[in-house]
């Protein structure tokens, strides 16, 4: 089983998710003076929030991470732009940019990605997402229904792959048409970005089965992850695809001893509860159409008298972050030794790409790099596309490549 480690960059603020934590790293926190000594974080200042993200990216690279996940939310920095800004400040780090087919035409995505790949040595990865909330989709102008968004995404990727692999591509689908376009000349030397996706609805799984190199998940109990992996593998097989791989996004609180790690988890938890974070989570939950994970269902039966230790769903797997609204919701909490053991446990059930991060991201990139990643030296696989035939095009209307 191969294994690779990426981290996650906080594109919508370092500490807005950590109520009560004074270590803000930019202008995303609410209230209180900035702790930034060199900048007021005004537009045009010489140290901006993007510079802070750049520090994390460099720390991640120095500490041996292979890449960084850039999350896309309307309330955050636009990830593809940030990837472009940071790519030339780093040498080897790969950047996973999330975007929705709704945000681009297939051709713009292809041309933009080809340019990026040529400039960075093929260090771009795509995370194709389709919206976790109808309300937010509508805010940004997308009035299509959930399942239709995935239908559109399948065509979008058919057309992207068609343009990428043909100089003269024709397509006549429900959402897209193409009449003769395609990458030509030097642009053809670029590699199509690896494709990640996420989402646990049936249409999301089907999209992954057809088009994804990596299916990404938020962490939950290992048996639930194993079941999801089995389901996606089975769906991918229908398209003759055996090479789909799996990624897990999980925070980490790792310390020299179990007690020190638990004390840090308790600090986050108590501060979150004291600032009313749970009520904010409940208010936001109404916006979401995405499936609730089973541990999130269990939150309904909990209340604020519960201790932080009641949120362990498996040894070292803690959902207290989710309860106080810190995404992705689950964290590995424990001694370095136990965190390594849990990573191996998830690896053994089929996860080969881990997105590990902690708060503050800069310091925790060093901690993870110094205490966790060295345990996997010599086992790291890097990422590349498995050699699978492209799945047949989706549209029944006779699209063709030439
Ligand atoms: C690792 C990971 C990263 C994700 N990144 C984003 C993101 O950047 N932006 C976003 O809107 N949704 C993101 N999602 C959410 C999913 O893409 C998806 O929208 C959500 O799970 C709901 O899909 P569904 O309703 O089809 O199940 C991410 C999910 C995972 C597991």
UniProtKB/TrEMBL annotation:
<dbReference type="GO" id="GO:0046306">
    <property type="term" value="P:alkanesulfonate catabolic process"/>
</dbReference>
<protein>
    <submittedName>
        <fullName>LLM class flavin-dependent oxidoreductase</fullName>
    </submittedName>
</protein>
<feature type="domain" description="Luciferase-like">
    <location>
        <begin position="48"/>
        <end position="352"/>
    </location>
</feature>
<keyword id="KW-0503">Monooxygenase</keyword>
<dbReference type="InterPro" id="IPR036661">
    <property type="entry name" value="Luciferase-like_sf"/>
</dbReference>
<dbReference type="InterPro" id="IPR050172">
    <property type="entry name" value="SsuD_RutA_monooxygenase"/>
</dbReference>
<comment type="similarity">
    <text>Belongs to the SsuD family.</text>
</comment>
<keyword id="KW-0285">Flavoprotein</keyword>
<keyword id="KW-0288">FMN</keyword>
<dbReference type="GO" id="GO:0008726">
    <property type="term" value="F:alkanesulfonate monooxygenase activity"/>
</dbReference>
<dbReference type="InterPro" id="IPR011251">
    <property type="entry name" value="Luciferase-like_dom"/>
</dbReference>
<keyword id="KW-0560">Oxidoreductase</keyword>
<dbReference type="Pfam" id="PF00296">
    <property type="entry name" value="Bac_luciferase"/>
</dbReference>
